[in-house]
Amino acid sequence: MTTYKSKMVEPIHLPAREERAANLEDAGYNLFNLDADDVFVDLLTDSGTGTMSAEQWAAMIRGDEAYAGSSSFRKLEDAVAEVMGFDHVVPAHQGRGAENVLYGTILEEGDVVLNNTHFDTTRAHVANQGAEAVDCPVPEASEFDSEGEFKGNFSVDEARRVVDEVGAENVPAVILTITNNSAAGQPVSVENTRAVREFCDEIDATFVLDACRFAENAYFVRNREQEFADATVAEVAREQLSYADVAVMSGKKDGLVNIGGFVACRDETLYEHAKQRGILYEGFSTYGGMSGRDIEAMAVGLREAVEEDYIADRVEQVRFLGERMAEQGIPVFQPVGGHAVYLDAGEFLPHIPAEEFPGQALAVEIYREGGVRCVELGSFAFPDSDRPELIRMAVPRRMYHKEHIEHVVETVAAVWDRREEIGGYEVVDEPPMKEIRHFSAELAPLGRV
Ligand code: F0G
What we know:
The chain is α/β, with parallel strands linked by helices. It contains 15 helices and 14 strands. Strand 5, helix 7 (190-203) and strand 6 form a beta-alpha-beta unit. Belongs to the beta-eliminating lyase family. It comes from Haloarchaeobius iranensis.
């Protein structure tokens, strides 16, 4: 049940069908090229797109813009200590800034880093240090239909196999991403987190939590892991984070802000080293790329993220979207994750081969049908990989109401009804770096639309 009301509104507009078709053509059938004003319900990402609370806006007025020693930063340190249990905070402008600070501090060329699944920016920052990123998801992470409760878990067995091959001395860090964004936003259990802690002790590695969706993960743990049935989400979050040495955080997710991030740790020496790199890349150690008002808003947001009413409403809204679609036979990744619903475009449009981008075709049709924007995560975004043809519908926090979600369901259902008429695409203009082509490449329909 939604336990908030609106105090400020922002009009949105659904362009007419012909305008949507023209917008698609103008955008080169790449939804990143659309004007946001032409999007009715925007499910491109849950990152930095949510609504702040009245308390956060009030806190922004109090932002202390001092270059050094800002009182806003002290409030952030207090919030991180209270909600997440870490004593030291190195601020950064967003998650990838924090990744640069941390991985530039703890990695060296030739290192191997393990993760349940590296998110794209994490993989890129590991690679940027000359290290190799190796994923160790549990096998069920890639099962579209199975009902596993913690399909985001880290496979310690797989990790052991990798360590036997490369040598423990070459694995200085193990990362656990909660929830596992690249595995359909699936949660990680506390039991698995404890196993990762033991494994890190065994191989003498630093245990890093990519905590950007830590509150959503804690909600799943409370509801699914027997031991925590009577705990609060705040207690679960503290418990889960307590096993890690370091947390790397994008405040744009469970910090409930539009920009911001940080590295949080316990070890004084690591803190001092990371702080120096933070000063170099992000700014002085009490602002790190954020204004004082951004920092104030994040300090409040971290506390709000673990409030029971908020988090239940948030995760259940995402589930509602997924289940309403699944009921109609639409191929939805099961169970629904914490921040997004993933559809299998390979199954939705089985007549379109991978080289004609079924995910992109589906995302384009969803916009054409109802002005809804989502993102392709298949052969267009990840060329030359054997990933499934998924599209992601990520739900911004506290932004959309049930009517918007119902509009999305109706839109996708209408596309489902005419799926056999939908054709594939070809890339007609590609930027030099293929790995990031999905942000700017242009496509053209191959006939049937
Ligand atoms: N780690 C994870 C698991 C993420 O999902 C993201 C961002 C980052 C790190 C980087 O954080 O964007 O603040 O620099 N994910 C966004 C998304 C972009 O759409 O999933 P950032």
